[in-house]
Prior knowledge:
The two termini are 28 Å apart. With 453 residues, the protein is α+β, with helices and mostly antiparallel strands. Helices cover 21% and strands 27% of the residues. α3 crosses α5 (152-164). Strands 1, 2, 3, 4, 5, 6, 7, 8, 11, 12 and 25 form an 11-stranded mixed sheet that branches. Strands 13-15-16-18-17 form a 5-stranded mixed beta barrel. A 3-stranded antiparallel sheet has the order 20-21-22, with no helix packed on it. It folds into 4 domains: 2-166, Alpha-Beta Plaits (2-Layer Sandwich), CATH 3.30.70; 172-263, Alpha-Beta Complex (Glycinamide Ribonucleotide Synthetase, Chain A, domain 4); 265-364 and 407-427, CATH 2.40.50.1010; 366-406, no CATH class.
Amino acid sequence: MLLIGIDDTDSRQGRCTTHLAYRIVDFLFSNGYDLEEYPFLARLNPNIPWKTRGNGAVCIKVDVDMTSREGEHVMQVVKDMVASNSMLGYGANPGIVFLDRCNNNIEPIIKFARDALWRVMSLKSAQRVMEECKEYYDGVSIEYIAMGNGQGIVGALAAVGLASLRLEDYTFEVIAYRRHEMCGMPRLIDETSVIAMDKATHPYTFNNYDYKHARVLIAPHGPDPVLFGVRGDDPSMLIDALSMLKVHEPLEGHLLFRSNQGTDAHLANMLDASNLKAYTSGYLYGTVASEPVAIEGGHTFFALECDGRGRVLCAVYEPTGLSPIAQMLSIGDILEVGGGVRKGTSKHPKVLNVEYIRVVDLARKVRYMNPLCMCGKRLKSEGKGKGYGCKYCGYRVKDAEKVGVDVPRHLGLGLYLPDLKAHRHLTKPLKRYSIKPGSMRLDIDWFKRYMYY
C-alpha cells in the first residue's frame, strides 16, 4: 500500500490540490490500480498566515507493488503531474510524501499530523520526523519531494498521518470540477436547487445554504477549478445530492473525499493562557474579567481570566454573528471559548479570535437602587447623609441604604456558533453533534470523469 501525500500546489491565482488529486485518481484507475478508500482531504490549522484558502492537503492510498518498477512508475507520474499542475512561480511551494506503509501506524508521523491541526509546524521538523522513521522503523520506506521552498511537505506529511488514523469523527465531501475554459467565469448553479437539495438531504449534509443571509455556501468564489462541494456524513446521500443540483455549465468530473472537515479538530487542545503562541488554535476556559466593549463596526472585546494562568483578550468580530452574544456577557460569567491566536504587536497584545462561545455559568448581575417606600413607590435621595423621601406619600427615612436588585440575564447556558457564512472548513455545525459519521462505500459512483482533457 502506497500512501501519497500532496500539499501547496495552488495559489490565490488558481489551481486546487483536490483537483490535482482528482487527476491522479483518474490516472490510477485508467491504468488498472485499485484505491483502498476515498482520498483523504485534510484540513490543517486554519490560522497559518501563509496558507492558501482552506489550508487543505490530500492523501491517496493505492495498491501498488513497491518492490517492482511499477511503484517507481507511479511515483514518477505523480511527481510529473504535481510539477505540471501546480502554481509554481505564483506562490505555490508543492510537497509530496510517499510512504510505503508497513503493518502498523508510525507514531512520529501520527503525532506530527495531530500537531499540524493546531500548531505551526516547520519544514525542518517534518524532515526530521521522516528521517527518524527511516532510521528507527523497520520495513518503512518514505520519500519526499520538495518544489519551490518545499513548505508543502509539512501538509503532505500531515495528510499521510491523518489518513492513517482511525479517526473517531470524520465527514465526507463530494467535489465537482469545472472544465478548464470555465475557470474564472461566474459559477452557474441554480440557487433554488441548492435550497431544495439542502432540505431533501437534511440532516445528513451541512452548510449548503445560509438562510439568514440568503447565500449559497457550496460554491467557492475564486478562479480555481472547483465548481461546488457538498459536505455531509453519508457518502450515498452526497452522490444523490449531485443529481438534485441544477448546474448550467459542463463538468469535468467529480470525486468523493473522506475528511476531518466539520469536526472542530483544530480546537481540541487547551491553550496555555500564560504562554500563548501566535497562530495556534485551541480553546480556553475561564471567567469573564471585564465588561464587553463594542467598537465601531460591531466588533466586541472582553478579557477572560483563565484560572490564575493568565488573562487573555478575546475578540469577537461582527461577521461571525457572535457579537450580540458577547455583548450580553458580564464579569463573573464562566465560559469556554475556542479560536485562533492573533499575533501581537508593539501596540497591541495577542488576541484570541473567537470561533465559538460556550456559556457554562452566568454570574448574578445586580443593580443598586433606592429602597422602596411603604406605599410601593421607590424613594428618592434627599442628599448625602439626609436619607430618602417619598414624593408620593411624604414618608421619610434617614437610615435606609440602596438595595441590590437582580438584573435579568437574557442569555442562556450552552454553545453559540458563528453564522453559517462565517464557518471555517473545520467548524463543527450544530446538526453534527447528534449524528455519527457513515461508512465508506466503494459501490457508488464516488469517482466519475465526464470528459477527457
